[in-house]
């Protein structure tokens, strides 16, 4: 339906054709101040903590998952500080020297000139196929000055471009995902410009070198990427620390550790304090309490988590989802609990509570759910409301600070109808410039209530997917509210109106109404598929004549809304073309998932039993039996596995000198993937490693240089029928048709190989709780 | 996937549908009629009801299982968009253009039957003075006795109105006959849905057919209230507040209306809640979305509002919890507003008058509950939600307790005389949108509370002070000193504040006498930790619809709810447990 609309309006725009685009170019050759710049006025001198930098990020074709997460992490203040300061901060002068070459200022009028040129060319040449989704026979639409695409293009052409270069050696580390993240953060912090566009090419190169999963230009899951990134950072940091510990064994922990200031006493890990900063921020501890209903004995087991994945229900709240997460679960029938005390399988009650609250609570809303009847992952458009502040109800009795107050500071929004395509953006509360929308290259200020547009019930397929809450205090909250009051006292126009966007009450309809009266406007803009992303900040409240019409009717001549044109191609979901093949894969995915479930459950049980072993001999015997059974099962499974997987193992990415460590950590991080059950991860993986095709091309994917840019172009012909997303940026159009080209995923292999390694002490997983899977009879 | 219907011929602009759909509402094609369904199996609510056995005591009563049976489900028709309304089409989900306003359907009920009045629990007669009593500028001109019986009506006829604010008025063809034939003690209901405002006769056999439907052009009515003091069989005073800030005073029997705060001349932010001042024929309070409470007089003309400089002595105290931009004591009372108080820049979600008509409980989007002595224009206490904004508030019939509901999915019970939190009630799965006491199920010791929320649920709670589960003792010991603060720097300051608030509370807890004394400063209470607060479970929780429920009301013989999309549901009370009142 949405595709239908955008197509309609596209052709709409086409009706009003090219003449208009050329005209305004001459008029407005002076660059206009953007909404972001407006909000950044009176910032004073450049700060050295990076809190006053607002950079967009270039999208290299479906890399919005990466961009949105990187932005969220950058504005996670303690995380940014830790990244910058670990192992030590690069001296500013050397940073500046590096930046001198990396930061490229552009002609602020570049886009206008380019546009004029393009307009001239357009008259003669046939429309380029750049506009994916537009059938080639349709005349190309003129560009909508308020469309995000246009704004992104302008941003890329006019704003300072920041290339990041590998600077790892100056940190005394080998190049890794962490060092390239640090490269990005440091360059942004050191930049003399407050706004610009980062090209995270180097970061992506490293990511793709290390993780085959990200080598294609396919849509990736943002939450999965967040988890992988955090795990990688931990692993990279710890690897380096161990390396140093080896070389300078006698030396005490480095000084920089203390200078970090944020490190609290070690929580008992063996790794040096200095490397604990990711743990200190994102890590929390879950206790699963199991109460045997026969002997009433309560047994506990602790697990650490980096984020929480919660199941969703229609018409619920995040609070309720978290409560459900911790709700009591009966272990009975096939799921009986092996009680240590009474020695046997017993009915039991189990619940998961939070024992140690993280400082940053990353909440993953499980919007992608496997549905049996459709045989695939489906996106849930449940209305799940999230408040600006949060406390956790599901804490243990002995939890420290159980009433900790959290504030929402970042939301990753997924836009799209399904898990395999779409677009990610981030909406982030910055330290002192309010909420901003980060949509790849585009950074725009938004109203606080804008954050509430993504509960999931609005048309447009945009839903909050990952929520970042950080700890705060009541004092801080009240101070902020007082400031909002103060701002309103001084600020004139905004009154209460700006607040109305997301709340049930919206601004007076009078304004909506007045949008119909086409005001005379300097910049004509045409109605196209997208409309300004930025709120009209102060215009809202003003009298109608001030108002920028949200409904962008561009010239009086233009027919308001011609009827919808016939839809050229049916808006089938992108994955449909090879139906049988697809279903086959699905089935396989499902099968694999089920096996995985079993295996995981078995594994868990085994872990548990391992602990109990010393106590009871008969139990030990049982355990041995179980293990045998497991091994049998594993062997069976292994025999079923594709040869691909083995091949992939051999061709798995380069390992650093400390490959064994790295691998361990990855397998840990993979654990999450497979534990996040009917979610993207598993099935994604299984989709990308299709059963029937032996994939010889895989190892040929160049390890270092991936021709990112070419990818979208190649697949253009395939892209056109994917409808619901055609309003998205062309870069983000689903590329899943390409998947047969993909190589087997080393991760898939890791799933099957790595589980032996995962100890019960160090589980780096995003914690998703699936009933009836956690234990097995 | 959203599938929109094909554009009908009437609206050449397909965007109209997008606008309607943007609210998540069914998109109307043409003006349709309300429908009523009588669910076969119904949606029974099973509740343990206390049957009082002579002695008015909880302990001696029997609890029987009562079943509230769903009588009917009246679906209000959502009107189609106004043809001149240029709705926004915006396929961009990231667009920040404003969406058409809605707050769901709310009902105002009125009955002339004295037997249907809720029981009162006040020990003494209401002695509260009139608002603005001391101000001679507000002294009402003497009214001739003859006119006193004849209520003054608004000036303009709404049917013949040429105002661009009112689109049209649809009266039922037999409305005159229906009005004359009806049971004079029946219940009228007034309901807002989208841009329509409907007048229904709930005692009529054809209650789904409206008596009058007013369609507005631009604005959506968000809240409304009927004056209990002036109601007669031939006169009802209704005020309603709109999304544009405009307020309408409407008299349905004569179809007359008047506009107040026309074009937002006094305050142009949406009206979130509106109530007649208890005991006043002419005055009402409206809360606006920009954190302002305004007292209007229906009889007074509008004038451009210029803040009157407040007392310099007030300013000494720094930022006050209440900024009096116009006091009721101002000598300038020729025009509206009577008084104008700025509480915050946060949206005021709702407010409620105490039964003794002296106090006002106001809840805001910033999560605060503010108790006001509105007669003196003072804020007495500020409480905070556990987290998130507060949405709804009400007083117990005896004025001892205040219940709030909010974005923490909790109902919170506060003691008014003790000025402290009593219990948190956990049971909703989403935000709580409306809360009400059931005065027919309350007595001196026990209280029945009902609540509805975005989780489409209706919950009932029984609350009595003696029955509260206190949190376990060792929790108290271990967490007594712990607050929500973790940063070491602010710990001390917070504790200090908490202590001072504690002292404050102690001094307050002597009773209500202090209310008459001097209050120099507002008491701001810290959030009580979970381990020190009693937790109350619901006695009943039921999903009653498929869309968020936004209003709840108790009547002598029934419970009523209304939902976002216009479902008005009525449950009959169990017949076997009639409680004398």
Automatic annotation (TrEMBL), chain A:
Region described as Disordered: spans on this chain: 1-32, 118-150, 245-274, 485-777
CDD domains: Peptidase_C19G
UniProt-recorded name of the protein: Ubiquitin carboxyl-terminal hydrolase
Domain USP: 55-472
PROSITE patterns named among the record's database cross-references: USP_1, USP_2, USP_3
Description of how the protein assembles with itself and partners: Interacts with creA, creC and qutD.
SUPFAM superfamilies per the UniProt record, alphabetical: Cysteine proteinases
PANTHER family per record: RE52890P, UBIQUITIN CARBOXYL-TERMINAL HYDROLASE
Comp. bias (Pro residues): 559-571
GO cellular component term, pick one: cytosol
EC number: 3.4.19.12
Organism: Penicillium antarcticum
GO terms for MF: cysteine-type deubiquitinase activity
Keyword Nuclease assigned: no
Keywords: Coiled coil, Hydrolase, Protease, Thiol protease, Ubl conjugation pathway
TrEMBL record, chain B:
A matching Pfam family: WD40
Top-rank taxon, per record: Eukaryota
Annotated Basic residues bias: 474-483
Biological process (GO), any one: carbon catabolite repression of transcription
Biased composition (Polar residues): 508-524
WD repeats: 383-424
Keywords for this protein: Repeat, Transcription, Transcription regulation, Ubl conjugation pathway, WD repeat
Coiled-coil region(s): none
Start and end residues of each stretch annotated as Disordered: 474-527
A cellular-component GO term for this protein: cell tip
Subunit and interaction comment: Interacts with creB.
PANTHER family: AT02583P, WD REPEAT PROTEIN
Family statement drawn from the similarity comment of this UniProt entry: Belongs to the WD repeat creC family.
Known role: Component of the regulatory network controlling carbon source utilization through ubiquitination and deubiquitination involving creA, creB, creC, creD and acrB. Required to prevent the proteolysis of the CreB deubiquitinating enzyme in the absence of carbon catabolite repression. CreB deubiquitinating enzyme stabilized in a complex with the CreC leads to the expression of genes such as those in the proline and quinate pathways.
Protein name per its UniProtKB record: Uncharacterized protein
């Amino acid at each position: 339906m949405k595709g239908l609309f955008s197509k309609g309006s596209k052709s709409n725009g086409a009706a009003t054709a090219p003449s208009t685009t050329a005209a305004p170019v001459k008029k407005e050759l002076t660059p206009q101040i953007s909404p972001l710049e407006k909000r950044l006025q009176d910032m004073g001198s450049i700060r050295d903590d990076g809190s006053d930098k607002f950079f967009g990020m270039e999208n290299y074709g479906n890399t919005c998952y990466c961009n949105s997460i990187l932005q969220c992490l950058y504005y996670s203040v303690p995380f940014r500080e830790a990244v910058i300061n670990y192992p030590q901060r690069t001296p500013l002068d050397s940073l500046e020297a590096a930046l001198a070459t990396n930061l490229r200022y552009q002609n602020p009028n570049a886009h206008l000139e380019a546009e004029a040129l393009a307009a001239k060319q357009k008259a003669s040449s046939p429309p380029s196929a750049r506009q994916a989704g537009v059938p080639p026979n349709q005349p190309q639409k003129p560009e909508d000055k308020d469309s995000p695409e246009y704004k992104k293009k302008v941003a890329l052409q006019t704003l300072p471009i920041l290339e990041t270069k590998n600077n790892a050696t100056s940190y005394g580390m080998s190049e890794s995902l962490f060092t390239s993240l640090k490269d990005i953060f440091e360059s942004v912090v050191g930049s003399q410009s407050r706004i610009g566009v980062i090209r995270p090419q180097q970061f992506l190169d490293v990511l793709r070198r290390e993780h085959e999963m990200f080598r294609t230009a396919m849509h990736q899951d943002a939450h999965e990427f967040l988890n992988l990134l955090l795990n990688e950072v931990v692993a990279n940091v710890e690897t380096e620390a161990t390396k140093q510990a080896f070389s300078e064994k006698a030396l005490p922990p480095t000084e920089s550790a203390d200078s970090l200031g944020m490190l609290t006493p070690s929580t008992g890990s063996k790794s040096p304090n200095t490397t604990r900063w990711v743990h200190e921020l994102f890590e929390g501890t879950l206790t699963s309490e199991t109460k045997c209903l026969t002997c009433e004995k309560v047994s506990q087991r602790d697990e650490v988590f980096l984020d929480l994945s919660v199941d969703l229900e229609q018409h619920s709240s995040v609070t309720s989802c978290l409560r459900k997460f911790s709700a009591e679960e009966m272990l009975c029938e096939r799921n009986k609990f092996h009680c240590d005390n009474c020695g046997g399988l017993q009915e039991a009650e189990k619940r998961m509570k939070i024992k140690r609250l993280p400082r940053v609570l990353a909440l993953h809303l499980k919007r992608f759910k496997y549905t049996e009847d459709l045989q695939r992952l489906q996106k849930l458009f449940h209305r799940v409301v999230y408040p600006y502040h949060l406390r956790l109800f599901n804490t243990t009795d002995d939890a420290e600070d159980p009433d900790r107050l959290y504030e929402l500071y970042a939301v990753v929004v997924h836009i799209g109808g399904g898990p395999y395509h779409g677009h990610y953006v981030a909406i982030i509360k910055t330290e002192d410039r309010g909420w901003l929308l980060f949509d790849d290259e585009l950074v725009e200020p938004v109203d606080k209530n804008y954050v509430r547009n993504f509960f999931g019930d609005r048309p447009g397929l945009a839903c909050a997917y990952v929520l970042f809450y950080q700890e705060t205090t009541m004092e801080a909250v009240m101070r902020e509210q007082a400031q909002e009051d103060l701002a309103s006292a001084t600020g004139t126009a905004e009154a209460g109106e700006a607040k109305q966007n997301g709340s049930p009450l919206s601004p007076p309809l009078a304004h909506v109404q007045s949008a119909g009266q086409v005001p005379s406007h300097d910049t004509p803009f045409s109605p196209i598929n997208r409309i300004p992303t930025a709120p009209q900040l102060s215009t809202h409240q003003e009298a109608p004549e001030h108002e920028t019409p949200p409904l962008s009717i561009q010239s009086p001549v233009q027919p308001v809304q011609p009827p919808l044109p016939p839809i050229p191609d049916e808006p089938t979901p992108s994955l449909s073309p090879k139906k049988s093949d697809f279903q086959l894969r699905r089935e396989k995915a499902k099968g694999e998932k089920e096996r995985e479930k079993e295996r995981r459950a078995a594994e868990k049980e085994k872990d548990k039993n391992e602990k109990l072993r010393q106590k009871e001999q008969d139990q030990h015997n049982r355990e041995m039996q179980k293990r045998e059974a497991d091994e049998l099962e594993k062997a069976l499974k292994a025999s079923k596995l594709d040869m691909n997987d083995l091949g992939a193992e051999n061709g798995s990415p380069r390992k650093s000198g400390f490959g064994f460590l790295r691998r361990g950590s990855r397998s840990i991080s993979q654990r999450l993937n497979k534990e996040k059950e009917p979610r993207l991860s598993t099935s994604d993986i299984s989709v990308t490693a299709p059963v029937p095709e032996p994939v010889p091309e895989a190892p040929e994917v160049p390890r270092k240089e991936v021709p990112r840019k070419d990818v979208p172009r190649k697949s253009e012909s395939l892209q056109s029928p994917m409808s619901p997303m055609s309003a998205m940026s062309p870069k983000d159009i689903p590329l899943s048709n390409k998947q047969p080209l993909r190589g087997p995923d080393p991760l898939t292999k890791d799933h099957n190989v790595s589980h032996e390694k995962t100890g019960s002490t160090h589980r780096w997983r995003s914690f998703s709780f699936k009933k009836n899977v956690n234990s097995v009879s | 996937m959203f599938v929109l219907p094909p554009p009908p011929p009437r609206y050449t602009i397909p965007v109209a549908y997008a606008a309607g759909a943007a609210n998540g509402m069914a998109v109307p094609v043409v003006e349709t009629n309300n429908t009523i369904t009588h669910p076969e199996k119904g949606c029974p609510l099973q509740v343990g009801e206390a049957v009082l056995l002579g002695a008015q005591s909880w302990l001696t009563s029997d609890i029987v299982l009562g079943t509230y049976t769903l009588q009917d489900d009246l679906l209000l028709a959502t009107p189609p968009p106004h043809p001149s309304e240029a709705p926004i089409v915006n396929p961009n989900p990231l667009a920040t253009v404003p969406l058409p306003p809605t707050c769901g359907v709310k009902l105002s009920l009125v009955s002339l039957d004295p037997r249907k009045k809720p029981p009162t629990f006040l020990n003494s007669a209401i002695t509260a003075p009139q608002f603005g009593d001391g101000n001679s500028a507000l002294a009402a001109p003497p009214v001739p006795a003859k006119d006193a019986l004849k209520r003054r009506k608004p000036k303009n006829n709404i049917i013949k109105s040429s105002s661009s604010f009112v689109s049209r008025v649809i009266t039922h063809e037999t409305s005159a006959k229906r009005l004359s034939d009806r049971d004079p003690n029946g219940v009228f209901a007034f309901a807002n849905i989208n841009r329509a405002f409907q007048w229904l006769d709930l005692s009529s056999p054809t209650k789904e057919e409206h008596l009058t439907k007013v369609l507005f052009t631009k604005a959506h009515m968000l809240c409304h209230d009927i004056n209990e003091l002036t109601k007669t069989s031939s006169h009802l005073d209704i005020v309603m507040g709109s999304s544009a800030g405009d307020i309408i005073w409407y008299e349905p029997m004569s179809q007359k209306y008047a506009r107040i705060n026309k074009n937002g001349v006094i305050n142009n932010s949406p009206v979130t809640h509106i109530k007649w001042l208890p005991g006043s024929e002419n005055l009402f309070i409206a809360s606006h979305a920009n954190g302002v409470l305004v007292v209007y007089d229906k009889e007074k003309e509008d004038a451009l509002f210029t803040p009157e400089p407040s007392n310099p002595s007030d300013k000494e105290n720094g930022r006050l919890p209440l900024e009096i931009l116009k006091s009721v004591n101002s000598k300038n009372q020729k025009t509206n507003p009577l008084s104008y108080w700025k509480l915050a820049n946060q949206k005021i979600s709702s407010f409620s008058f105490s039964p003794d008509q002296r106090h006002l409980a106001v809840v805001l989007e910033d999560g605060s509950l503010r108790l006001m002595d509105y007669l003196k224009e003072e804020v007495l206490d500020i409480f905070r939600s556990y987290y998130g904004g507060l949405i709804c508030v009400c007083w117990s019939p005896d004025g001892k307790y205040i219940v709030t509901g909010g974005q923490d999915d909790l109902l919170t019970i506060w003691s008014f005389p003790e000025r402290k939190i009593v219990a948190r009630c956990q049971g909703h799965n989403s935000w709580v949108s409306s809360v009400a006491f059931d005065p027919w199920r309350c007595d001196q010791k026990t209280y029945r509370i009902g609540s509805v929320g975005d989780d489409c649920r209706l919950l009932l709670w029984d609350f009595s002070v003696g029955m509260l589960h206190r949190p376990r003792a060792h929790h108290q010991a271990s967490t007594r000193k712990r607050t929500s603060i973790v940063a070491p720097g602010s710990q001390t300051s917070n504790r200090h504040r908490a202590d001072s608030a504690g002292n404050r509370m102690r001094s307050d807890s002597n009773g209500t006498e202090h209310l008459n004394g001097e209050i120099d400063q507002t008491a701001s209470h810290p959030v009580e930790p979970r381990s020190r607060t009693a937790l109350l479970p619901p006695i009943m929780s039921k999903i009653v619809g498929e869309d968020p429920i936004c209003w709840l009301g108790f009547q002598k013989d029934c419970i009523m709810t209304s939902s976002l999309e216009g479902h008005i549901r009525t449950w009959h009370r169990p017949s076997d447990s009639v409680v004398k009142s």
